[in-house]
Specification:
By secondary structure, the protein is of the alpha+beta class. 17% of the residues lie in helices and 38% in strands.
């Protein structure tokens, strides 16, 4: 199934949405579009001189997280292919649809609007990855599902056994990382940024209100000012390339 573009969605509680938008526009060097949706719950983070690849949604309940939008010029075909592979349709909005993967992770199929120009690296980093956090019992089915749905993407296991990477064809802005959790808990997702200088980007984000949660050899877990978890990773923000050791 041909995917023409990808969006990463920042999902945050409605009562903390404004603070989330303030933070994420700062770290991505973007400005906000007008609010959309029945409750003004959707907004696009607009870069200068290129096409957007990050959007945000205010959620009415829960702590939020992240989700992926797959963009194609045949949404009915994309939706049907996902269902054949084991996804369920959560909501059909006609020209777009919300689906749920076999492992319980929500994603959307939306129509292509000509997006083609990837946003540049900003402040030494780039938001370029949605990480799907998968419980152990769903791991095999989830990896198989995304491999089949994104069949023209490069699919490689990470050097750590809990990771599997799906890299899109050149020019698409957001890739997918699957992470096997170490315990049975509900499926979730979070955002990852590739950073040229991990320590400098971490300090920058902390100045903007993020809080450090955990340090690992090649990535750091942070919590944004709206309470959402995300990661900074020591990858090349231009290419997404990984370090030789401790790959993620």
């Amino acid at each position: 199934m041909s995917i023409r573009w990808t969006y990463a969605f920042v999902d945050r509680p409605a009562e903390r949405f404004a603070r989330a938008l303030e933070f994420w526009t700062a770290v991505t060097g973007t400005r906000l579009s007008g609010l959309r949706g029945d409750e003004g719950e959707f907004v696009t983070l607009l870069p200068g001189g290129s096409d957007a690849c990050v959007k945000a949604q205010a959620v009415a309940s829960g702590d939020g997280g992240a989700h992926l939008d797959l963009v194609g010029d045949d949404v009915p075909g994309l939706r049907a292919a996902a269902v054949r592979l084991g996804a369920a349709v959560v909501a059909d909005h006609g020209d777009w649809a919300v689906l749920r993967s076999p492992g319980g992770r929500s994603f959307c199929a939306v129509p292509w609007d000509g997006e083609s120009a990837r946003p540049p690296v900003v402040r030494g980093s780039r938001l370029d990855q949605v990480c799907l956090d998968v419980p152990p019992s769903a791991w095999g089915a989830e990896v198989a599902f995304w491999n089949a749905l994104l069949d023209d993407w490069e699919s490689l296991p990470g050097s750590r056994t809990e990771f599997h990477v799906l890299t899109p064809p050149a020019g698409l802005p957001v890739r997918v990382l699957l992470q096997r959790l170490d315990e049975e808990r509900p499926a979730a997702a979070h955002l990852d940024l590739a950073c040229a200088d991990l320590a400098a980007t971490r300090a920058d984000h902390e100045r903007l209100g993020a809080t450090r949660v955990a340090d690992h050899p090649h990535w750091t877990v942070l919590r944004d000012p709206a309470g959402g978890l995300y990661c900074l990773t020591g990858r090349d923000p231009e290419t997404g390339g990984l370090p030789a050791a401790g790959r993620r």
